Amino acid sequence: MKSLVAVVLGVLLAGVAAQGKEVKRGRKVSKRQENCAPRQYGYDSVVCVCNATYCDNPGPISSPADATQFTSVISAREGQRFQVNTADKGTAPTDGGTIITLNRTQTRQSIIGFGGAFTDSTALNVYALTAPVVDQFVNTYFSEDGIKYNLCRIPIAGSDCSTRPYSYDDVEGDVDLVNWALEPEDTDYKIPLILKAKAASPGPLLLFGSPWSPPAWMKSNGMFNGSGYLLPEMWQPYSNYFVKFVEAYEAAGADMWGLTTQNEPLSGFDENWGWNTCGWTAEDMRDWIKQSLGPTLEAAGMRRLMLMVDDFNRDTLPWYVQPMLEDPDCANYVDGTAVHWYSDQWVGPEVLDETQELFPDKWLLHTEACQGWDVGGADSVQLGSWERAQDYVFRIIENLNHYTRGWVDWNMALDLMGGPNWANNMLDSPIIVNATADEFYKEPLFYTMGHFSKFVQPGYQYIQSSTTDGDLQTVAFQSVDSSESVLIVLNSGESVKTVSVDDGSGSYVNLDLPVKSLVTLLYKL
């Protein structure tokens, strides 16, 4: 039988005449690890198809027990998905190869985690599938056999990735929140999916909530979207609203790890902003946290939750968080700064360094990112785009090299159009659901996330890595006890790269990186 790579290469070279034509599945390589069932949709790579009877879960993968060996995990444009190889280390670097240097004396942040968001759109799409396919979805994201997501965001009430704008109390003037209640999106979809994810996860699942908008009647413009801010007289009722959210989710079994104060707070001053938002100046956010939200959470026994501010793009750093974190009464309640990726192509990563240096006791965490946000329409979803995956992983590596402690993707699943989305803000996602066929498609984006989430465990510490080849981007980590190394390398070039990893131990990890590939290297010292 032909190998998976040969099958995929044959399809790519011959060209698939009919869009969506399925490629013959590769052989099963072990009892637990299975190959991608590839399908071509006209982009530069393939998706992997999962249905009720098959899904390509990689199974447990670890570094070799023998310290003289290393394991490489390879995904590439040509069709490889989590291809696992084990080989011996060398006593010298490969002649003519590129050296990647690890400096274990230069360590920085420890990792919190990697994951995605339990949006309404995600849960609605997943539960449009039959029960066996739902289980495949949960296992491929959360289990030991899958990519082990451990850090997930939950919108507090509606967002654009919902079928409607709503809050948990849309009864105008109900300042005592007597009508506050979770909605069917929570009780019938998101919470059941979260509980399945918790049951499948080998370790703790860290959940944090993020609000898009208060009830419209609490805002200056009386709308979920557009330009409007939280009325000062609503500061305390809205703080109580946060407490009720945490209490309700935890009562349902979804224990919370943290909160952000507002999704993209400066969007709430744009009168043309099309979906749920609320405007906050840095000064008002500072005063609300120290006067109302912080004390209210503390009084409810919720200071245990990690509280993050900003939750917006690099172009807000460090100026937006400075008034909050320079005020000791506010900073007392704040644990970190949440960052989005949507301005990364315009604003360099130096602002992350500056923010960390200004406030070394507050961590940085990327809490939202996705592809397709800047194109819209029919191009929002690009099934099988390696180009998008490469761009995505370049930014993940860049931000991890500048102090961020993890990366939370946006929707974990969308439909073929990139929705549903009540504001018509269609997007791409690592998994795309085709409910009519009762199957879902794992995009290259899924595997790029997995190269981090499956191998860089919570608590792993960043170590410095460097190379002279401009086509290569690297980021490296070591386990809590420093016994295991994880090096992630992106080859964005159009040629095979011969590399040797020098970590000062006297042995070398020597291998060839395929064209347009992402490789995770695992080994013990």
Automatic annotation (TrEMBL):
Gene Ontology cellular-component annotations: lysosome; vacuolar membrane
The alphabetical list of record keywords is: Glycosidase, Hydrolase, Lipid metabolism, Signal, Sphingolipid metabolism
Q: Does the keyword Signal apply?
A: yes
Query: Which class of enzymes does this protein belong to?
Result: hydrolase
Query: Which terms does the record give in the GO molecular function aspect?
Result: glucosylceramidase activity; hexosyltransferase activity; signaling receptor binding
The superkingdom listed in its UniProt entry is Eukaryota
Location of the Glycosyl hydrolase family 30 beta sandwich domain: 463-521
Q: Which organism is it from?
A: Petrolisthes cinctipes
Protein's recorded name? Glucosylceramidase
